[in-house]
From TrEMBL:
Enzymatic reactions: K(+)(in) = K(+)(out)
SUPFAM superfamilies named in the record: E set domains, Voltage-gated potassium channels
Source organism of this protein record: Syrrhaptes paradoxus
Chief place of localization: membrane
Top-level taxonomy: Eukaryota, Metazoa, Chordata, Craniata, Vertebrata
Identification of the protein by name: G protein-activated inward rectifier potassium channel 1
Residues marked Role in the control of polyamine-mediated channel gating and in the blocking by intracellular magnesium (site): D133
Domain Potassium channel inwardly rectifying transmembrane, chain residue ranges per copy: 7-147
MF term (GO), any: G-protein activated inward rectifier potassium channel activity
Keyword NADP part of the UniProt annotation: no
Length: 320
């Protein structure tokens, strides 16, 4: 049976919000963000439907003005001064609206000065068109420029390892950047997700605990130009103080890793996430080196990015 994860390996959070009741109206109060968060197929559908409905409604209003003034029956009478010249049916009214909205202006259809209601409708059409264009086009632009795809070029090792470094037992995993463009002000954080019960008997499902990966020393601030191995020292302040190789088999926890930084090319903040369950933590392993010195530069071999090898490691916990 597959282990139920709080955060998938690709960073997607397995949390669904239900039974919102009256709180669902909050989505409409922030309509712009709601549209940006929708999937692409729904965004494109709303985009097409909004423009199609707006075009048909406005074309119907121009056709209605021509119908009420009787211009449809006198369309080919050159002695009369219609509201809109050469509008004699709905298709011609629709084409006039499109020409006006798109500022094409072929010159065959135009508003005359003897039509105040047409002038008012023209002003209303210009204002409404500007609002709709700004809202929908702005929504599409923000959605296309979101840095979510940039997070896919940030790699995490498939497994975490526990071994000794500088005489201390450490939990380690590897991160890498596949692009040549840098992540400015990159910072990494780790959360331990584990259910526990308080001394008062309160059960806390999915309790979150911070894992120190160098917050006090500044090691959590990354210069991510090459793959780095992130290290969490297991000491008396660590949640893994009592963790041994044997107890690791019976534990049930999840380590959520969050990597944040500013995309150098766009200046937007990007966040990449992954997680490690207890069966993805390898005791007594170390990562293979991936850096090599070539003629005038350093080469990174990403084929060995996830590879580990066994090293002698005491099977006891730090407490023992």
């Amino acid at each position: 049976r597959e282990r139920q994860r709080f955060v998938d390996k690709n960073g997607r959070c397995n949390v669904q919000h239900g039974n919102l009741g009256g709180e669902s109206s909050r989505y409409l109060s922030d309509l712009f963000t709601t549209l940006v968060d929708l999937k692409w197929r729904w965004n494109l559908l709303i985009f097409l439907l909004t423009y199609t409905v707006a075009w048909l409604v406005m074309a119907s209003m121009w056709w209605g003005i021509a119908y009420l003034r009787g211009d449809l029956h006198r369309a080919h009478d050159n002695t009369d001064s219609p509201c809109v010249a050469n509008v004699y049916n709905f298709p011609s009214a629709f084409l006039f609206f499109i020409e006006t909205e798109a500022t094409i202006g072929y010159g065959h259809r135009y508003i005359t000065e003897r039509c105040p209601e047409g002038i008012v409708l023209f002003l209303f059409q210009s204002l409404l068109g500007s609002i709709v264009d700004a809202f929908l086009i702005g929504c599409m632009f923000i959605k296309m420029s979101q840095p979510k795809k940039r997070a896919e070029t940030l790699m995490f090792s498939r497994a975490a390892v526990i071994s000794q470094r500088d005489g201390k037992l450490c939990l380690m995993f590897r991160v890498g950047n596949l692009r040549n463009s840098h992540m400015v002000s990159a910072q990494i954080r780790c959360k331990l997700i584990k259910s526990r019960q308080t001394p008062e008997g309160e059960f806390l499902p999915l309790d979150q605990c911070e894992l120190d990966v160098g917050f006090g020393t500044g090691a959590d601030q990354l210069f991510l130009v090459s793959p780095l191995t992130i290290c969490h020292e297991i000491n008396s302040k660590s949640p893994f103080f009592c963790l041994s190789q044997r107890s690791l088999r019976s534990e049930q926890f999840e380590i959520v890793v969050i990597l944040e930084g500013i995309v150098e090319t766009t200046g937007m903040t990007c966040q990449a996430r992954t997680s490690y369950t207890e069966d993805e933590v390898l005791w007594g392993h170390r990562f293979l080196p991936v850096m090599s010195l070539e003629d005038g530069f350093f080469r990174v071999d990403y084929s060995q990015f996830h590879a580990t090898f066994e090293v002698p490691t005491p099977p006891y916990s730090v407490k023992e």
